[in-house]
Amino acid sequence: xxxxxxxxxxxxxxxxxxxxxxxxxxxxxxxxxxxxxxxxxxxxxxxxxxxxxxxxxxxxxxxxxxxxxxxxxxxxxxxxxxxxxxxxxxxxxxxxxxxxxxxxxxxxxxxxxxxxxxxxxxxxxxxxxxxxxxxxxxxxxxxxxxxxxxxxxxxxxxxxxxxxxxxxxxxxxxxxxxxxxxxxxxxxxxxxxxxxxxxxxxxxxxxxxxxxxxxxxxxxxxxxxxxxxxxxxxxxxxxxxxxxxxxxxxxxxxxxxxxxxxxxxxxxxxxxxxxxxxxxxxxxxxxxxxxxxxx
Length: 295
Description:
Elements: H1 3-41, E1 44-45, E2 55-56, H2 60-66, H3 69-99, H4 107-119, H5 122-132, H6 139-147, H7 161-189, H8 194-201, H9 206-234, H10 238-243, H11 250-260, H12 264-294
Antiparallel strand pairs: 1-2
């Protein structure tokens, strides 16, 4: 490599960094600074009045979190909610993508209907569900009470912890499973159909074709879908908070701690603990998957 080539390569590298600089600066301002500031205030007692100075309290906020029984209750609810929503939405998206991975009349219409819940703004869907399950004029109670006569009184769906948890989980599954469907469909449509034709000649069953052909192809996508879905569901807030106050997931617990009790230091400590939890889980998941692939 001559000096001219080296000089050209160096100038191209500098030009590339110059093009990336605005994006990097924006990332630092939007992500880096809030992250560092959040860590700082997690060790402080932050007053509601911004003109008053914060007081350094060390690990007190973290100790308060780990000695708060409501925190553990919220963690349990969140883990249960995350597992249910992530597993069912991923499996449902995978099953539909495999079943619909063929040509048939009206396929585009079916795909549009499936992804509709994912592209429609969450607020519209949330208030539609609230209207459907309203105890006075909701269509669900009309069917349950007036048509089927299953009960004499209209159930208060979103006012009971058990029914509220089930309905919020169903809403999240319905809202998020199209993401898995789209991801798996993209992989399946890019696969060579001759593999399945060869398996048919060998007399392989559908389950054998899935294990030998489909699963190895979608495995990287499956890990990505599960990882992203776990993160998104673990931090879910808007859907739960607007539907009901009876499902105390960590997102709602964190919001109440910051803006209801105005304990900003403790809220910052909670967010750091949650980040460590979810980061450790994702790293463990990826490590297990990579180990299985190597074996």
